Amino acid sequence: MGFLDNLFGGDKPTQKNIDKLVVRVKERYAQPEYRREAMDKLIAMATPEAITGVLARFTVVAQSPHWDEEEKRWLVDQLAGLGEPARSALLAFLKKADHIAFAAKALQRLDKPEQFVADLIACLTARPPEDHRSIQGKAELVAALADTNDARARDAVVPYLDDHSDDVRCASVDALERLWALAGDTSAAQDKLRAAITDDARSARVLRHTAGAMQRLGVAVDPTKALAPAVAEDFVVKDGKLQPAHAA
């Protein structure tokens, strides 16, 4: 196979050859060596199209969890060595793909910390809360921002408390809780959280998740506003804050 590829130009960075290699990269039931050889060839081509193609490996979960993790970590290392061409491809990928956690790790290796946070925020805002097509990608970007320990990340996730997806809403609540103590104004986040727990159109899962975070953070609530039923089942307002109903 390799001899014939070389003989007939199989290693040349034509779109046809790249497409064939991407198919191999995404073969989840193949042996690891089969996918690795295809990734090696794409990385060696080093064209923008080839680098974009090899990123498809992040979108597939291989049959073996061990090799899936190993291959993705290996690819992160390879991308980190490619410099700016990889960075450009990763930014485009992070703005539209799902399964972006390893791609974010690769970008972090290429960026300075300040730039990394700015890049993640740009990739998240490219997927607005009303976008129904990229639930997992948004949730994973929010989780990546939660790991940055940067107040800009906290502010960026606030609009996603109103995302159409429960998964994204819960991820945003988790991110806020992790980043809450950082310096800066949290009034916009507090307003969103307070509005959320009175909105009975939200799912019980989101309401309880939000209320639990507010109770732990000590966010003040308006005792004159009725809590959504799913919140009122587990929490009461005492001294202007949420408390577990069983502890009241």
Task: Show the helix and strand layout.
Layout: H1 2-7, H2 15-25, H3 32-45, H4 48-54, H5 65-80, H6 84-94, H7 101-110, H8 113-125, H9 135-146, H10 151-157, H11 166-179, H12 187-196, H13 204-217, H14 229-232, E1 235-238, E2 241-244
Antiparallel strand pairs: 1-2
Helix pairs in contact: 2-3, 2-4, 3-4, 3-5, 5-7, 6-7, 8-9, 9-11, 10-11, 11-13
Description:
By secondary structure, the protein is mainly α. The chain folds into 3 domains: 83 residues; 72 residues, Leucine-rich Repeat Variant, CATH 1.25.10; 64 residues, no CATH class. Helix content is 60%, strand content 3%. It has 14 helices and 2 strands. The longest helix is centred in the N-terminal third of the chain and has 16 residues. The mean pLDDT is 94.
Give the averaged pLDDT, no decimals: 94
Number of strand segments: 2
Tell me the strand order in the biggest sheet: 1-2
Radius of gyration: 22 Å
Q: What's the total helix number?
A: 14
Largest sheet: 2 strands, antiparallel
- Percent of residues in helices: 55-70%
Termini separation comes to: 72 Å
Roughly what fraction of the amino acids lie in strands? under 5%
* H-E order: HHHHHHHHHHHHHHEE
Domain count: 3
pLDDT < 50 runs, ≥5 residues: none
What structural category characterises the helix and strand content?
mainly alpha
Outline type? elongated
